[in-house]
Task: structure prediction
Amino acid sequence: MRVLVACERSGRVRDAFRLYGHDAWSCDLVASDAWGPHLQMDALQAIHRGTWDLIIAHPPCTYLSRVNVAYRRAHPELQSAAERFALALFNAPADRVCVENPIGSLWTAIGKPHQVIHPWWFGDPYTKATCLWLRGLPRLSSMKGPDSAMDYPWTGSLFPDSYPQPAVLRPERGRRVRHRGVDDWWRWPTPAGVQSWVNVQRSASMRSQTFWGIALAMAEQWGGLLADSPGLSAIGQRA
Result:
C-alpha cells in the first residue's frame, strides 16, 4: 500500500506504516526530523504526485485549534486559508483519507469528526483530544477507553495480550456522552496516572507530534491487515 502522511516532519506515522511493510512517505515544507522517505514540498502538490492508497493529513492547527482563538480572531483570513487547506486534503484523490486535528474550527469547515481519541486509549499515559475525519476508513479500535468493544476475531496483532483490549477485560466503565452531536466516547473517565500532555510538554513542535501508540494503531488497523475482518465498517467509503 502506498501511504502519504501529509504535514508530518516527525516521521512517526510514516515509520509505523513502513514497519508493517508499506511504501509510506511523509511530506512537509521542511525536512524530516527522522531519516526516511520524505517529500519536502507542498502537501497539495504531493497528493497529486502519483497514486496514493491512503492519505493521512495533519494540517497545521495554529489557526484552527480552539486553543488559539486569539490568533483566529486577529487573523480571520489566515483561519479561512487554513480551513480551505484542510478541506482540500480531506477531498484528496484517494479512496482512504484521514485528517487529524485538535478540537477547533474544522468542526464547521469539514463537519463533525467521525472520532475523537486520546493517547491513553492506545498505551501512552496522556490526554490530548484529537479529532479524526475519516473517508473510507473504520474508526480506530483502542486498547482501553471507548471503541475497544469491537466484536471481531483478532489475529496477527503485534501485542496479542493487550492490544486491543476486549471490552470484557476493560477495568474502566464510563458513561456514553454526546458532545456537540458527536456520538463518541471521547469523554471517557480518565484513569489514575494519566495526565494532560499540554501540561507536560510546552514545546509546540513536541505537542504536535503523533504518539507512537496512535501511529501503530493506524498502521496495524488501516494498513490492510484487517480488511477481511467482520465488524470493521468503513466510514464514507466511495461507491
About this structure: The domain at 2-222 is CATH 3.40.50 (Rossmann fold). The chain has one domain: 2-222.
